[in-house]
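hiii so my PI (J.) wants the whole complex modelled not just the main chain, which honestly fair. so below is everything: two entries, each one labled with what it is. i double checked the lines twice but i was tired so who knows lol
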Amino acid sequence: MKTYLDFASTTPMASEVIEKMHAVMSEASYGNPSSLDHQFGLSANKIIEESRESVASLINANPDEILWTSGATESNNMAIVGFHQFQYKGQSMRFLSSHLEHKSVIESMHSIKDLGSNVCFIQPNEHGRIDIETFVNQMEEDVIYVSCMHVNNETGLTNDIEEIGKYCRKNEIIFHVDAAQSIGKIPIDVKDMCIDLMSMSAHKVYGPKGVGALYINKDTVGRIKSIILGGGQERGMRSGTLPTHQIAGMAKAYDLSKERMDDDYKHIKQCRDNFIKTISNIDGWKLNGTDKDAYPGIISICFPDLYSESLIYAMEDFAISRGSACSSDHDEPSHVLKSMGLLDHEINGTIRISFGRNTTLNEAESAAFELIKAVSHLRNLKGGN
Amino acid sequence: MNQKEAFFDTSHVMQDSSMEDGFIVEEVSSSNGMWLKLFSRLDEEGKSELYYQVHGCPHLISITSMLISDLQNKSVQELETQNINEYAEIINLPKTKQDRLFLLEDALKGCIKHLKRA
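here's the output for the full assembly
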């Protein structure tokens, strides 16, 4: 049985979440939550609205600011393309994002470029992070919209969301945050952080796959245009019958995350510290980014003299990844690591290890020992060079 | 030997540079940073002794290990008739990784050329 250390890619569902979803599927709440003329629909609708409250409560939002989606990818598409389509009145608008973003943000940005707007992408600082100084230095005039991720999925580096949010609010710029990797893991307060739109996922925090949400600040944004056409569910902004059991599962996962956030964080930090301490016994590696300002659950390590695919193969008892799960099945070098200035051989030699609530300290330490063995084996194959 | 066993087998890896004396070295590399070094020599009876060093993906490592293991104690003529493609089948080499075979083929050809001259 392999030890799972790829929590940044997805997480196993918490048993409480599975129980909740089973219960919802077994109950007489299989009605369409939009069918409010009978008890079945009303029962499903009640679950949906209670779940909305759970999600809103995790981020200090109002329940009517939460829109259900199929996951963070759809939320990112809606936040960018849906916002653009609602605001676009035939005049080009200027959007700003970064080279660190997830493909769903980058591709959405390219799509609004095709619709006639301008998009610019800023570089992170030398550590792979966007702090307020990096952001302001590359800020262009007339920008009306900024999209910046909270925690990077490949490096764990945490951007300066609160400061960027305050800058945007002061300058009347709409601020979108992709929080797929941070939600439920570190505190987020959309009011304090001056966030206008925020993408969320369930499966990164022990919830089910195929469900997510978009926070839409009702005062600063209010509405976006639906990019999925149909029955006009979700106040006309996202058509499609809502998956009651998925949404209930997401809400349960968020409730659990809220309860356990501090303990989870401390435990995951301990896993990281033990892992890093153990691998410090070998040479010729570096951390991509810094320990400071990083979410401890994601570690990106570079062995410039080795091939990450072989390292992963050699660590046969551990499920780890080369880069982000979304791009690791093709051979394009990671755009995130590239934007951080890594050379091709450094990108080729990078692995990502991510810890979660279920990781034991023993597993983290064993992974480090296994990595040391793998590095030694591959260096032997090179003749000890 | 299956792919995993071949990947971890180091019996024909040239790990000690002091052993390299008397071996002919053939080195090939690819544009994506992988490389392969073959160390070869013939004994008094004209039989082969081969070692390798390799840097690359698990498929390249496994195929190299399997091939070099099979090429021990062979005449130059036998080395020339070795079919490299059969290793691709053994480990189910993905089509996108066929270039690993070319790398191996180039190294082996260069190696045979040197051995014929020696």
